[in-house]
Design a protein that fits this description.
Elements: H1 2-20, H2 27-39, E1 60-61, E2 64-65, H3 67-79, H4 83-98, H5 102-118, H6 122-126
Antiparallel strand pairs: 1-2
Helix pairs in contact: 2-3, 3-4, 4-5
């Protein structure tokens, strides 16, 4: 039980560090998000696009860099849409992780499970990173 509590405390510390070191959202990123919407006939959400890297997960582990894949995933999540569109976005993230090196290949399924099952929960809504977060009030 002591090990479980230690892991929980360590996880909370790492989440806190990750949330305080968020990458900036540049104007070119906002433009890319809008271009994606134009190309996919999506209505632009009322909230300004912001990316947060790989939400509650490191952007880079060893030589596997997930930042570009997570940026694209953030764009899809900003727009939201159908359940099928969410599945496609989560699958694209998994595939991009698998192509990001050995660590990414090993972590592709945990990454997919994380976004697929927890990508639209109270936790991601709290961090304004849930499916369709561009429409959050």
């Amino acid at each position: 039980m002591k090990t479980l509590y230690s892991l929980l405390v360590l996880s909370l510390i790492l989440i806190g560090i990750e949330r305080f070191t968020l990458p900036p959202t540049t104007e070119s990123m906002v433009s890319s998000a809008k271009e994606y919407g134009d190309a996919n006939n999506k209505e632009i959400p009322p909230k300004t696009f912001k990316q947060d890297g790989c939400t509650l997960f490191p952007d880079k582990i060893f030589s596997s860099d997930f930042s570009e894949a997570c940026f694209k995933h953030d764009i899809s999540y900003w727009y939201g849409g159908s359940e099928e569109e969410k599945r496609q976005a989560d699958t694209q993230l998994k595939e991009a992780a698998a192509n990001a090196g050995t660590t990414g290949y090993l972590l592709q399924w945990p990454i997919y499970i994380g976004v697929h099952f927890f990508g639209d929960t109270w936790l991601t809504k709290y961090f304004d990173a849930n499916w369709g977060f561009g429409w959050n009030e």
